[in-house]
Design goal:
Low-confidence stretches: none
Shape: elongated
Radius of gyration: 15 Å
Largest sheet: 6 strands, mixed
Helix content: 10-25%
Number of helices: 2
Strand content: 35-45%
Length: 132
Amino acid sequence: MIPSARAHTAGVIAALEAAGLQVGRGVAPAGVDPPYVVVHAGGLSVLDGPVSGSHADASPTMHVVCVGETADQAEWGRDKAAAALLGIVTVAGRSRLHPPELEASQPVRRDDDRSPPIFEAVDIYRIHTTPA
């Protein structure tokens, strides 16, 4: 059975919301001013699994964009997201294979194409799961 990318994304969003963050899936959450977080699902890497399901283990990436009106707000969101995602992320029908990893990080950047400008901090997390 091929793992569900949607279930992994839902697990990440649930962990971020449980940490008290406003979260959007692919877009800014409707009607919410910064600070907030936008989750973009990356690729769903399928790993070698048990003999009974050679494509059962998964290692998807999640791009987490922390948005703030100031650089400080973006960093605050980044810190809250890291605390949530480097702990336990629950994915429906899955068990944790390894702890989540912070795979890459970009500096906080000001986006002047928006009015008013916003600040964004982007981190990429890898979630490792196996069938429950």
